[in-house]
Design brief:
ribosomal protein; 4 helices; disordered N terminus; chloroplast; Helix Hairpins; Small ribosomal subunit protein uS15c; single chain; plastid; elongated
């Protein structure tokens, strides 16, 4: 299995202080999503990991929608830093 190293967008001091912040949680979910995606490229029939990936995607989506409602500027900065697409609004 190939190990991927992900660049930390949030500095070490911010990680220590703000572990409960929305930005940190989205950052952690994004890293988990990237790891699971690379795992699923090798193991296509790992259905439990697929289910876990869908659950994490849903959690991240809910956090991002909360952040976009509360503070649109922080939301825009976060999605640009993490290089993820903007969610569609209904």
């Amino acid at each position: 299995m190939v190990k991927n190293s992900f660049i930390s967008v949030i500095s070490q001091e911010e990680k220590e202080e703000n572990r409960g912040s929305v930005e940190f949680q989205v950052f952690r979910f994004t890293n988990k999503i990237r790891r699971l995606t690379s795992h699923l490229e090798l193991h296509r029939k790992d259905y439990f990991s697929q289910r876990g990936l869908r659950k994490i995607l849903g959690k991240r989506q809910r956090l991002l929608s909360y952040l976009s409602k509360k503070n649109r500027i922080r939301y825009k900065e976060l999605i640009s830093q993490l290089d993820i697409r903007e969610s569609k609004t209904r």
